[in-house]
């Protein structure tokens, strides 16, 4: 009696292909517990850190100096005196001057000095034979330095205590200032003012006429000259 043979499997068309088993992901050696086994005595190679390229420093470009140095105004007076070192000391005591610098010459005479009085600068030097002469050699003042301050009475008293000669005491002037005039021991004239009232041109002319009329000559200011 013949045995039944198993039927042959006929592949069906468009039958889905069997899925391949997913490959196992390689274990990361950096995670704890997944590091591969090391042999005893094996060297542990540590990667060397990368060196960053050294960039040479940029050359510093020198800044351009200011056209007008800090602290300077458009006009800076200069005084020529016989005995500049002594004059610096006097201006310090009389007007509260602060010495900024001094530049002595080979013979010790001061070729240039800079003082600061209030918010303004003053240049100073000893008499030089071939330049400006000091008032003592001329025998008369040749210029004056005008100061505007908050409290004229305080400045006047300090200057007189330091040795300044009073040419005109503190008084009310027709142009609206309290005003005085002093002469320092080196022959220069200083005026000190504190502005107290604004005066219109018309009022100033009227006040000026009264002022000059009170003088010996009785002169007046021509009409329309005060503007």
List keywords for this structure.
227 residues; alpha/beta; 2,3-Dihydroxybiphenyl 1,2-Dioxygenase, domain 1; four-stranded mixed sheet; 4 helices; 23% strand
Secondary structure layout plus pairing:
Blueprint: E1 78-81, H1 84-95, E2 98-104, E3 110-117, E4 120-126, H2 135-138, E5 144-148, H3 152-162, E6 165-172, E7 177-183, E8 189-195, H4 201-213
Parallel strand pairs: 1-4, 5-8
Antiparallel strand pairs: 2-3, 3-4, 6-7, 7-8
Summarize the structure.
With 227 residues, the chain is α/β, with parallel strands linked by helices. The chain contains 4 helices and 8 strands, in the order E-H-E-E-E-H-E-H-E-E-E-H. Among the domains are: 119 residues, Roll (2,3-Dihydroxybiphenyl 1,2-Dioxygenase, domain 1); 29 residues.
Question: Can you walk me through this structure?
Answer:
Helix 1 runs antiparallel to helix 3. This protein is of the alpha/beta class and 227 residues long. It has four helices and eight strands. The radius of gyration is 47 Å and the shape is elongated.
Low-pLDDT stretches are none
**N→C terminal distance:** 152 Å
CATH architecture of the domain at 78-196: Roll
- Report the order of strands and helices: EHEEEHEHEEEH
What overall geometry do the principal axes of the alpha carbons give? elongated
Please state the average pLDDT score: 82
| Strands, total number | 8
The number of helices is 4
| CATH class category name of the domain at 78-196 | Alpha Beta
Please indicate the percent range of residues in DSSP E strands (runs of 2 or more): 15-25%
């Amino acid at each position: 009696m013949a045995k039944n043979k198993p039927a042959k499997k006929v592949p069906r068309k468009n039958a889905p292909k069997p899925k391949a088993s997913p490959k196992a992901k390689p274990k990361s050696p950096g995670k704890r517990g997944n590091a591969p086994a090391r042999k005893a005595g094996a060297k542990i190679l540590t990667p060397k850190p990368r060196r960053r390229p050294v960039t040479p420093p940029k050359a510093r470009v020198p800044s351009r100096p200011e056209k007008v140095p800090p602290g300077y105004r458009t006009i800076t007076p200069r005084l020529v005196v016989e005995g500049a070192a002594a004059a610096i000391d006097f201006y310090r005591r009389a007007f509260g001057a602060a010495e900024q610098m001094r530049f002595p010459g080979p013979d010790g005479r001061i070729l240039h000095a800079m003082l600061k009085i209030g918010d303004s600068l003053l240049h100073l030097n000893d008499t030089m034979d071939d330049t400006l002469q000091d008032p003592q050699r001329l025998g008369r003042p040749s210029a004056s330095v005008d100061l505007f301050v908050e409290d004229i009475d305080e400045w006047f008293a300090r200057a007189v205590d330091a040795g300044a000669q009073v040419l005109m005491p503190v008084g009310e002037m027709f142009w609206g200032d309290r005003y005085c005039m002093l002469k320092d021991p080196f022959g220069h004239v200083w005026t000190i003012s504190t502005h107290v009232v604004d005066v219109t041109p018309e009022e100033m002319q009227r006040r000026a006429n009264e002022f000059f009329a009170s003088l010996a000559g009785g002169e007046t200011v021509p009409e329309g000259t005060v503007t």
